[in-house]
Amino acid sequence: MDIPFTRKPRPDTGLYNAKLGVWLFLASEVMLFGGLFSSYIFLRVGADYHWPVHELNVTLGFVNTLVLILSSVTVVMAWANLKMRKIGAYKVCMWITVASAGVFMVNKSFEYKAKFEHYGVKLKDGTILTGHLPEGGYRIEFGDVNKLTLNSKTGDPTYFLEYTKSENPKFKTAAGTEVELTKSAWKELAAEAIKAKQNSVVLTSVAPLTFAVKESATFTHTDSTLTFRDGTTIEGKLINDALTLQVDKVDVRASDDPKKSLAWTYLGTEWQHAFDAHQEHAKEKYKSFDAKDARYLRHVMQMEIHHSTVAEHNEAHPGAGHAAETHAPAEGNHKADGHSSHYPEATIARKDIAFWSNFTPKWNTYYGIYFILTGLHGLHVVAGALVLAYFLLFDTKLLREDPDHLANRIEVGGLFWHFVDLVWIFLFPLLYLL
Amino acid sequence: MEQSHDDLQKHVKKYVKIGIILGVFTIITVGLSYIELPTHGLNIIVGMIVATFKAALVALIFMHLNHEASMIYKILLFTTVFVMGLFVLFYLAHGDGLVFTQFDGYPGTPYGGAPH
Amino acid sequence: MSASTATHDHHGEHEHDHHELGWFQKYIFSTDHKVIGIQYGLSGLVMLLFGFFLMMIMRWTIAYPGTEVPGLVMLSKLPLVGNFFANWIEQWAPGGIVSPALYNMFGAMHGTIMVFFGIVPLGFAAFGNFVMPLQIGAIDMAFPKLNMASFWCFFVSAVIMMASFFLPTGAVQSGWTMYSPLASTEGMGIKNVWMHGHTWWLLAMVFNISASLLGSVNFIATAINLRAKGMTWFRMPFFSWAMMVTAFLLLLAFPPLEVAAILQLGDRVFGSSFYLPTGLMEGGQRLDISGGGNPLLYQHLFWFLAHPEVYVLILPAFAICSDVLPCNARRPLWGYKMMIYAVLTLAFLSFIVWAHHMYLTGMGVMMSTFFQITTVLISVPSVILLTCLMITLWGGSIRFNTQMLFASAFLPMFGIGGLTGLPLAFNFIDLFLHDTYYVIGHFHYVVAPGTIFALFAGVYHWYPKVTGRYMSDLLGKIHFWPSLICMNLIFAPMLYQGMLGFHRRWYDGGKYFEQVTNGHLWTNELISFAAWGLALAQIPFIINVFVSIKSGKKITSDNPWDATTLEWNTPTPPPHGNFLSEPIVYRPAYEYSVPGVEQDFLPQHVADNGVPAEKTAVAANHH
Q1: Cβ(C88)–Cβ(C151) under 8 Å?
Q2: ipTM of predicted complex
Q3: Is A69's CB within 8 Å of B94's CB?
Q4: pLDDT at A432 (0 to 100)
């Protein structure tokens, strides 16, 4: 039993099945990306913060655009060459296409990695500082811990003991027996508690413990208690709760009063003077703009920092250089590890932080839609490349016996591939440029 | 749609040309985005026009939409109408909210939040 | 486009290369559209029953809040799994009394299961898969492997959805619509947000949507490219038309839901704020989010799917009735072309009415008016469809077998459902009726006694083709009459309750809202008893389905109902490859009681029956 019209088009519709199928699939893809693009519009129109412009790495995006265009040309050439039975040229074109997908994804991963390592801190007065965290990230230090309350169902000692500074801590149960919280020991304790219908197990530490807890592992904390995300609560004393940031940009656009911004409390008045000088130049340069224009604010109310001290900064950027700098994407130029001396460090008390995050979807809806759009697009690139690579590597029998059928497959795979390119043609300006 | 060897040979040359045009227009898009037009909205419109032009080239030439079976056009016509509905109505729905007066006296949309 | 010019490139002698398939390939991982249709059908029926079971427990809580559900604790006494259930009941329904959390869970899952796992798989995927290729004379779907992938995607999604009940957090609790911000932040204080019932709901939906997508691409490609010789567009039975249109709705409406689900997944697991406005507080605390999002975005995306989805639920019902009614009234389908244009208009309009679900969100006057107008407009094609089916009966010699009973009951039931929807289309009335039992009554009239009755009709109608035996007519009637009475006793009082102001999400049925329910709580008990009665009425059906496989009356011909469409021109049950010889279509689909013809029906594949084919076609078109 053979399904008709898998190879030759049906005369009255002029289509073979797979081509019809892929166009239907693309119609649904149009709706998928249409939904995402209209979400983008919805979010952008409704944004109550300064929508980032030119904040991503334009060079990488530009290179990726060219790579995708190249692969689009080669995939359609592969089809034409196969139709002409130029097998060698067909193979070369297919290899270039698949390799382009690889290059695209490698570029993308660089871009993503830079975002994951780059942090923004929104201070209570609306000022935003961006930069990198020193090694270890943001840790909350908590000392004098004697009492631990574990949830008997969700508690997980391996989860929170990772953050103690003490080696092999020992604990006493309510009954007075001494235990080391290994996995098996905890399993027994938890089982007993559940049997006795107790929701929690209370343990006392033999010696006071000190914790340095990753912020992301905590659920809530006060001056005397801290709750982990597995439900465990420890009681003790908060020693230190401050975030250290190697600042690479100051943004006072949303600041209540830029002159009294909290940024200057943490960076010092010298940087404030540098900022004032930078502002003077920028104001001069963009004086044709309205003072409320988002672009004017973007240039005038932000300053990038590439040096650890003001002196170095001024030396490297005499005069009007500052303004142009604000164009440069911050994250492409430097790495966190080992180069901390390039940036002034600010240790910001928790009470002054309104919100902080790396540049992931959490930071704002722009980065949210950026990651969702490019992530889904990336998945499409990977899927398309896999399909094309399969045709190239495993359809050798078809290539020998029925090249026209294979050409149909390449055409259908190619249609999908062009669509992926087409989406990127819109993504690139919307996310990177405008 | 059976094409002769010569036709295909011509097509290949056309594909390369279109590829080059697309590359050039990508450079133009990037360049345009750094030129500050009177409003940023204008920048967006110009950028989108260039992008649409590029997308049209890809669709018409690479995806062979310049000569395709009528069924495909019918399917795409429907899809385009709905996708436009999605864009336009979402956009209109966003602008057309009942205006509530917030308790601090500033008018604002219910979910837009007060001005900073 | 004349299909008589259509020639197959593989000419259809169909030498069935009988290399025997293994048992697994034949019945489990089959690529045969009929087996996949049956797989979809059985899973759909099981899910419908399960969704109904959830509702019966909820009905107890509504009628007798705070009392023990009889028999619930018995689950913990089952052999083998008893211990497992004991813990679960201890957590969610201590002492057999349904907790509010469990009520919410069941409410959300009842909606999800009925819509996405019950009716769509049964109505669209099962009937569409089994009947549509047969009816258009195709040997299989255009992409048989994708068809199999579709079913297994659906299966995975159902497993994930069911498994979420047994997570420590339980299944999702935020209503089947999953409105953000509640749904974005529900139960976020756990170590691993991936292990939350809500997150699993979203994952299950991603699989479910993929299954629908594969299915709908397949349906449309099959209908366009694999029609038999002579099967022109206007000879294609309305059933196949409706299935194709339904596939288009699924194809184009589901992606925005996928977007909605992906963004909500982002909110939950990546900490984004797509649906979360700035300064959102929960439990007196400012959430650790950036804000800047908009909950309305979710509602727009969700309802952009969910309104076409309503028509995905109802069109298969129209499809089935359009076959069952003409066949048993022995009359051509009245207004066949008009019905096709109506269904196309309906599909088109269904994409631009979604915001009538959102009148209460503070939409401005302009948008409300726009959606009000389109919503009222869409009732026109619906009424055309219903009226055409009704006029089909006029002057017929009706055979009241079970499927005919169900199909003819569909007409008034859908009528009530549709008419009660009209007031809701106007936003000033919707302000009062929104989220009350009136809304519940309205859409259940459409899908429960409406769609589900039509689906039952379909089961009774095509059962002989699937198994070679009839279902028992007596058991069928015992199934039909109590079902009809109970359905009305359930949903008519709901309309009344809604107008009184009963809110749809009350866990206690309104016991603590005396100013509203004063003296009317008895309606809750009435509805609950009717629901349990409805459950009893399904027992004869279940018996009928299983017992008839072995001991039903054998059919004596391949066309037991004397129907005209191509699926009755196959051996029973149809073999792999469907037709013994290539089917050729000579006439429109509903040639019943053609004047001057001896038999009272002329099947589509019959070339000549004393009357030249041209003439009968003309005669039929004159109706």
Answers
A1: no
A2: 0.92
A3: no
A4: 94
